[in-house]
Design goal:
235 residues, mainly alpha, three-stranded antiparallel sheet, 52% helix
């Protein structure tokens, strides 16, 4: 008379020792985190992800603040160049009023065009410098670049007006005398030119990041796919 066969206990009732023992003739699976195929290497994946995320939000905000101040201060150079390179609008006065000497002249348009072209160049240059200093980029950095460009344009506008001819046209006309040509105050007619620096900086920085910026890693490369287990030897 044979003893009844006892079925093996279900998986949840097996002891930890039974679960650790591999099947006879089959190699034990690698432990998690061991670096062997079959399990994701979690520590390495976390370290790589942390290294590529950057120094942190506080450090990025500090860098963005420094970039904003530096770009805004560069507006002083833009103001000097605008005052130096912009064409002068000639005026002439008589006993009753002050008139444009050349009514068909395009000097006023040239004043706005000079400021716009200089602002576009400053925007592209500032974007290039920021990209070379910090290739990783980031939203705070882009915002700092745009805000700094706007503040720099405002500084350049006011500085150029201050360096240019006096704003009191009547007093200037009386000082030079009747029939003598003098220059009109430096004036920016198209206020939209104040945005040229920021727009140029954003476009150039975006292009540089798209062409030469760091690429995001492939998330599937952080994991090793399990290799096919060998077949157990025949009995």
């Amino acid at each position: 008379m044979t003893a009844p066969l006892t079925p093996p206990p279900p998986p949840h009732e097996q002891s930890p020792q039974d679960r650790r023992e591999p099947h006879p003739g089959r190699p034990a699976p690698p432990a998690p985190g061991s670096g062997q195929p079959g399990y994701p290497v979690y520590p390495a994946a976390y370290e790589a992800s942390y290294a590529q995320d950057g120094p942190g939000m506080k450090a990025e905000l500090r860098e963005a603040a420094v970039i904003t101040v530096a770009v805004a201060l560069a507006g002083a150079l833009l103001g000097v160049l605008w005052w130096w390179l912009a064409p002068h609008v000639p005026l002439i006065a008589d006993d009753s009023a002050v008139y444009l000497k050349d009514t068909e002249g395009e000097q006023a348009i040239g004043v706005d065009g000079t400021f716009t072209l200089l602002a576009l160049g400053f925007g592209a240059l500032s974007a290039l410098v920021v990209f070379l200093v910090r290739r990783r980029g980031g939203v705070p950095l882009v915002i700092g670049l745009a805000v700094g460009g706007l503040l720099g344009s405002l500084l350049a506008w006011r500085l150029g007006i201050w360096l240019g001819p006096t704003q009191d046209v009547i007093a200037h006309a009386k000082a030079v005398g009747k029939g003598v040509t003098f220059s009109a105050p430096l004036k920016l007619g198209a206020k939209g030119a104040l945005l040229a620096w920021s727009l140029s900086a954003l476009v150039v920085h975006l292009g540089l990041m798209a062409l030469f910026g760091p690429r995001d890693p492939d998330p599937y490369e952080q994991y090793a796919y399990p290799a096919k287990s060998p077949e157990p030897p025949a009995a």
